[in-house]
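Module 6 notes. Inverse folding takes a fixed backbone as the condition and produces residue identities as the prediction. Think of it as a translation problem where the source language is geometry and the target language is the twenty amino acids. Below is one complete input and output pair. Work through it position by position during the lab.
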């Protein structure tokens, strides 16, 4: 390896026209194409260098895939792609220093003998192979991070992870991961590794009879939120219709995620004129076992009520309604965790129907009951939040999400996304990626805007 490149360091690889080598889409699948695009430091433009016998491997941080000549082709103009690490030498590159330019190289492929090149150095386009060095691009390696720097990573999923609708949540029970989403009466899927998913069934093969009368004539089930108490799994869910405040939150319970679900009845309801809307339920359990229902959407934001752990219904002795956050008419999908002395309140902001306005956000508090503040110390009750996602090509509409804390301490963003929201079919898929916490204790996601700045903790 040239002494100017460091094992394990992360680089942005740029053309003379300041376009960066990148995966074409975020969370790229096996054999996804690579492109040159305007340099911005997003995760799909960052590459970790690994030393290998006879050259280097270039790992794209978006999905942990490696720069490869597609189909091991030796042809002029063959596309460059991203593939899983293997022993094929088309993943091995020899960086040939360019004379008179600091940290600049030609990249020659060990198997094909061809050179990595931007198809069009004046703008975005595919990255291709050139068979002769005079057609190669001189790539400048701009260091972005030191070896050992942790970045968010996107999991490559397989199996049954695409649905008609979503609002996903994951729980780990007896070493197995279970995904609950609103499609088909709350569909249940399982996985042993968070990557390959198999559908098991649903909470409600037949909907409880009380649903339609409780939500203004609608029996549409939304947004499951599940937790384990003792040996019983409880699944909270909302019943509503789009834009309606006639909503209710119900509960079902079972000893097993895959079968035997029983109706636990209605927990709380809202009607026109109430300050809140009873959808998007989630449960938070405090260290002392006290249990709380966090819910709400649009109207005046996010609220919390205490739950009786014995019944799973509202605590009749504690009638306080805590108002945690106000979204100025555009806030939903609350999720609450406790980490390192802070309570983190995650919410979706914007409007899912308006495409790029929809995103995931966070604030935090030193008390469960607030006040919750954004990174600038401004209150969430005044509509202030810190954004965690923005639209990226191939992963659109990530707003409704769960911060899932695994048994080993790893945090994951579990979300719904659309590969392309302009597609009429508009199938929604499950997205799982790790969350990294910066030095100031704020979460950073794979879809963060200004990723490098966020990791450094700079406002």
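Target side of the pair, the amino acids:
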């Amino acid at each position: 390896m040239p002494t100017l490149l460091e094992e394990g360091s992360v680089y942005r690889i740029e053309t003379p026209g300041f376009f960066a080598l990148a995966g074409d889409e975020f969370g790229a699948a096996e054999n996804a194409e690579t492109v040159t695009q305007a340099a911005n430091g997003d995760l799909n433009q960052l590459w970790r260098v690994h030393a290998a016998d006879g050259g280097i491997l270039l790992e794209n941080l978006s999905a942990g895939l490696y720069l490869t000549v597609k189909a091991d082709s030796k042809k002029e103009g063959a596309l460059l792609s991203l593939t899983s690490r293997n022993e094929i030498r088309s993943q091995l590159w020899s960086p040939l220093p360019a004379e008179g330019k600091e940290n600049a190289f030609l990249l020659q492929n060990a198997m094909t003998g061809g050179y990595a090149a931007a198809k069009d150095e004046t703008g975005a386009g595919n990255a291709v192979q050139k068979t002769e060095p005079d057609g190669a691009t001189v790539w400048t390696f701009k260091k972005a991070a030191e070896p050992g720097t942790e970045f968010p990573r996107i999991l490559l999923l397989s199996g049954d992870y695409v649905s008609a609708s979503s609002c996903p949540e994951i729980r780990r029970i007896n070493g197995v991961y279970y995904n609950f989403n609103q499609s088909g009466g709350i569909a249940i899927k399982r996985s042993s590794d968070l990557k390959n998913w198999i559908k098991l069934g649903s909470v409600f093969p037949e909907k409880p009879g009380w649903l339609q009368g409780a939500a203004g004539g609608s029996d549409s089930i939304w947004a499951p939120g599940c937790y384990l108490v003792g040996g019983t799994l409880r699944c909270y869910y909302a019943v509503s219709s789009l834009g309606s405040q006639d909503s209710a939150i119900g509960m079902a319970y079972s000893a097993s995620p895959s079968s035997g679900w029983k109706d636990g009845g209605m927990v709380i309801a809202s009607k026109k004129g109430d300050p809140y809307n009873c959808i998007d339920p989630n449960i938070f359990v405090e260290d002392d076992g006290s249990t709380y229902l966090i819910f709400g959407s649009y109207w005046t934001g996010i609220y919390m009520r205490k739950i009786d752990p014995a019944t799973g219904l509202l605590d009749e002795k504690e009638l306080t309604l805590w108002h945690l956050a106000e979204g100025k008419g555009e806030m939903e999908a609350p999720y609450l965790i406790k980490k390192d002395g802070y309570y983190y309140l995650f919410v979706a902001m914007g409007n899912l129907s308006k495409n790029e306005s929809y995103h995931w956000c966070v604030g935090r508090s030193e008390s469960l009951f607030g006040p919750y503040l954004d990174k600038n110390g401004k209150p969430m009750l005044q509509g202030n939040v810190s954004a965690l996602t923005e639209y990226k090509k191939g992963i659109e509409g990530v707003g409704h999400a769960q911060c899932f804390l695994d048994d080993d301490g790893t945090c994951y963003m579990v979300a719904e996304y659309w590969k392309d929201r302009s597609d009429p079919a508009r199938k929604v898929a499950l997205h799982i990626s790790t969350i990294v916490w910066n030095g100031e204790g704020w979460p950073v996601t794979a879809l963060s805007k200004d990723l490098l700045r966020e990791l450094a903790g700079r406002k």
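Reference fact for the lab report: The chain has three helices and 34 strands.
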